Amino acid sequence: MGKALILLPVREARNAPGTDRVHPYVGHRPVNGGSLTVDNLAMAWRRAKSPRPVYSIYIIELSRDCMRRPCAFAPLYVGQTAHTPEHRFEQHKAGGMLAASKAHKFGTRLRYDLMKGIGPFRNRKEAEAAEKAVAAALERRGHRVFYG
User: Fold this and answer.
1) Is 138 in contact with 61 (CB distance < 8 Å)?
2) Three-state secondary structure string covering the chain
3) Residue 123: CB partners within 8 Å, gap ≥ 6?
4) Over the stretch 60-95, which tens digit does the pLDDT of each residue have?
5) How far out from the chain centre does Cα 140 lie?
6) Peptide bond into 120 cis (omega under 30)
7) Dihedral of CA 128/145/141/74: which sign?
8) pLDDT (tens digit per residue) in 83-126
9) Among residues 100, 93, 97, which one has the least CA distance to residue 131?
10) Which residues have CB under 8 Å from 136's CB, separation 6+?
11) Is the pTM of this model over 0.70?
């Protein structure tokens, strides 16, 4: 009963005065005698927000120019992102604060063959743990791997 603090009258919560359409952030009719409460507004805000991000692992093949000594396999950069791997690769190539220096200077392409079957992950912590595990597995296979 103590949570029935009235924020907005029903008329102000609608898109246009005198219509039956409900404001998009509300998504349902107000309760408690036609007013929006703190609980109703908070619930509607949670529903209106986008779904939780899904994290994925991406692998970028680097040019062999980044290595001082010759290597049998192409060097790789492993990362995790809440965006698509293609979008994250574009961010690396564009440079700036979001780009890893190796991926920016020497990144050539995404390695979809190595990304197959990895992820998706529910949160960043799981994705970061998987990033380290994938990097370690690729190093065991003979690749020079940069990650982080």
Assistant:
1) no
2) CCCCCCCEEHHHHECCCCCCCECCCCCCCCCCCCEECHHHHHHHHHHHCCCCCCEEEEEEEECHHHCCCCCCCCCEEEEEECCCHHHHHHHHHHCCCCCCHHHHHHEEEECHHHHCCCCCECCHHHHHHHHHHHHHHHHHCCCCEEEC
3) 55
4) 999 888 878 887 888 999 999 998 899 999 999 998
5) 28
6) yes
7) positive
8) 889 999 999 999 888 888 888 899 999 999 998 988 789 899 99
9) 100
10) none
11) no
Q: How far apart are CA 4 and CA 33, in angstroms?
A: 10
Cα–Cα distance for residue pair 65/15, rounded to 1 Å: 59
Whose CA is closest to 135, among 120, 148, 116?
Answer: 148
Residues, the chain = 148
b/e for 19-40, b at 16 or more Cβ within 10 A?
eeebbeebeeebeeeebbbeeb
Tokens of 123: 């949160």
Lookup: tokens for 33 = 């005698």
